[in-house]
UniProtKB/TrEMBL annotation:
Transmembrane segments: none annotated. PANTHER family: 2,5-DIKETO-D-GLUCONIC ACID REDUCTASE, NADP-DEPENDENT OXIDOREDUCTASE DOMAIN-CONTAINING PROTEIN. It comes from Lysinibacillus parviboronicapiens. This is Diketogulonate reductase-like aldo/keto reductase. The keyword NADP applies.
Length: 276
């Protein structure tokens, strides 16, 4: 595995296993600099959302990087108050304009709004048919949401992006997704930093001469999970990418597997407050 390692989605599209998450990058210069630095050190995927308010800066940073558009994998998401068939198509147009691109790599339903997530996904299928996106997907979908989509979908979602880290390992959902060819992306792969003081993880880091963040990110990779850690700190952006030249042993993987607490740092998709 190297920094350009990709996960091949069901339609053959290659999605980088490492991307930069840009949630909470709200300062223009900070956002431009973080993305610029990430692309310089080899990242080839950016994960944004209309919610994050930085699609314009994401597009700008990518254009200024001097890397061919087709070499960078761009994901964005339709926010909850834009869901439903027509509203999703309109929201996509807005995101595409802000990003100043003529296609996106992956478009996700951000959360499964109970009344409209199925129609939202139907719109995403249409965007795929029209070749405006290279892959379809969803985020924050439990198995029961996916079951509903799979019952009707012409194109099964290719990606499900959910909270995953050592304290929330999501094994059952992972098994279900694997069975249905749905790649799993971990959001908050570092538990928003909240798993990095774990003594087991720190000890494994000492054994390998790696930081806690590198151990956690490597654990995700060895579980075949795509990761999108967020950082605005150049040294951390680089550190988080230096995870392709070492391996955790089976014993170390098992030690981390034992840390699961089913603990969320974000919201549970079934209890999300959809307050429009
Ligand atoms: N689909 C969804 O609903 C959601 C999607 N996401 C996506 O996932 C991405 C990542 O998740 P996020 O919630 O940001 O959490 P992460 O698990 O990526 O953690 C980010 C935090 O960890 C810090 N950090 C990053 N690298 C290191 C390191 N090497 N050592 C110590 N601290 C570090 C960052 O600080 P600093 O920046 O100061 O360096 C930041 O405070 C988001 O940016 C977004 O793209 C996130 C939440 C929900
Ligand atoms: O993408 C996101 C970033 O984090 C937020 C707060 O947890 C989430 O609500 C949102 O889905």
């Amino acid at each position: 595995m190297n920094l350009q390692s990709t996960k091949v989605l069901t339609n053959g599209v290659e999605m980088p296993r490492l991307g930069l998450g840009v949630y909470k990058m709200t300062e223009r210069e900070e956002t431009l600099q973080a993305i610029d630095y990430a692309l310089k050190v080899g990242y080839r995927a950016i994960d944004t959302a209309s919610l994050y308010g930085n699609e314009t800066e994401v597009g700008e940073a990518i254009r200024h990087a001097g890397i061919k558009r087709e070499e960078i994998f761009v994901t964005t998401k339709v926010w909850n108050n834009d869901q439903g068939y027509d509203a999703t198509l309109r929201a996509f147009e807005v995101s595409l304009k802000k990003l100043n691109m003529d296609y996106l790599d992956l478009y996700l339903t951000h959360w499964a709004v109970p009344q409209s997530f199925e129609e939202t996904y139907r719109a995403i299928e249409r965007l795929y048919d029209e070749k405006l996106i290279r892959a379809t997907g969803v985020s924050n979908h439990h198995e029961h949401h996916l079951q509903k989509l799979l019952a009707k979908a012409n194109i099964a979602p290719m990606v499900n992006q959910v909270e995953v880290h050592p304290y929330l390992q999501q094994d059952a959902l992972k098994t279900y997704c694997t069975k249905h060819g749905i790649a799993l992306t971990a959001w908050s792969p570092l538990g928003r930093g909240g798993v990095l003081d774990n003594s087991t993880i720190l000890e494994i880091g000492q054994e390998l001469g790696k930081t806690a963040a590198q151990v956690v990110l490597r654990w995700h990779l060895q579980n075949d999970t795509i990761i999108i850690p967020k950082s605005v700190t150049p040294s951390r952006i680089e550190e988080n990418a230096q995870i392709f030249d070492f391996e955790l042993t089976q014993a170390q993987m098992t030690q981390i597997a034992s840390l699961n607490l089913n603990k969320r740092f974000g919201q549970d998709p079934d209890n999300f407050k959809f307050d429009f």
